[in-house]
Amino acid sequence: MPERFDGEEDRRRSPRFSCGGRAEINCLPSTGVIVSGRLHDLSLHGCRVEITRPIDCGARAEIIVHVKAASFRALGTVKVTRGRSDAGVEFVQLSAGGKEKLEELMAELARSQALLNRLKCERRERDEEAFRRELEEGRLHAGRLSERFPFLQTILSSEKSEYKAKTEQAKSSGENCRVATLPLIVKIDLFG
Fold first, then answer.
1. Does pLDDT of 190 surpass 90?
2. In whole numbers, what is the pLDDT of the chain averaged over residues?
3. Among the four residues 2, 10, 21, 163, which has the most C-beta atoms within 10 Å?
4. CA 110, CA 49: separation in Å to the nearest integer?
5. Is pLDDT of 158 > 60?
6. Are 188 and 152 in contact, with CB atoms under 8 Å apart?
7. DSSP character for 7?
8. d(CA 141, CA 145)
9. Which DSSP symbol is given to 121?
10. What is the DSSP string of 42-108?
11. Angle between helices 96-148 and 151-173 (to 10 degrees)
């Protein structure tokens, strides 16, 4: 799922997906120091890596990306740095085999994201349906209690009328005040 840093417009040419993996970055010209890091997200044109040591913005680098059993090598440019531990790398050049592996990986990540979104949607729908059922059951219980104890109807309707009157009074006077809400539980002393 595409994501942005706060306050920045999304200038990406392709969707970026969250994923786990590792990356090894060798700044060019090489000094022999390889900066390793944890991959956070990936797109056809770049990635975001949590790095173990800072890298200069604008640095050209060779990057090796490892996700699951796949890995590929690319030449890139560090486009964005966030603090000392986050770097956004744009892929500038990939081999034909590297590009093919990256495309396969992106297709798999897109399928996984679509499946995850569908599961979330189905869960949300199930949760909404369960809530509706509980609400209906609550209404049934309240209706049964009202039938069994008729005085509850008069108590609840008088409190409801009082609540409406206070709300209307606050609206008409233009006051910005809170009106106490109806109690969720009505205490009944059956033995008093």
1. no
2. 77
3. 21
4. 19
5. no
6. yes
7. T
8. 6
9. H
10. E-SSEEEEEESS---TT-EEEEEEEETTEEEEEEEEEEEEETTTEEEEEEEEE-HHHHHHHHHHHHH
11. 120
**Residue 83 corresponds to which tokens in the numbers above?**
């603090």
Q: Which of 185, 42, 17, 32 is nearest to 111 (CA)?
A: 17
Among 51-60, 128-137, 174-183, name the most confident range. 51-60
> What pLDDT, on a 0 to 100 scale, did the predictor assign at position 78?
93
Only one residue has tokens 């056809």, namely 44
In the numeric block, the tokens 């306050």 are attached to 7
Q: Is the peptide bond before 29 cis (omega within 30 degrees of 0)?
A: yes
**CATH number of this structure's domain 17-115:** 2.40.10.220
Tell me the pTM: 0.56
**What is the model's pLDDT at position 68?**
86
Closest CA to 87 of 105, 121, 66, 61: 61
d(Cα 15, Cα 33) in Å, to the nearest integer?
31
Which pLDDT belongs to residue 3?
40
- What token pair was written down for 24? 């090894």
pLDDT at 152: 56
Written as six digits, the tokens of 161 are 């009328």
Domain boundaries, the chain: 17-115
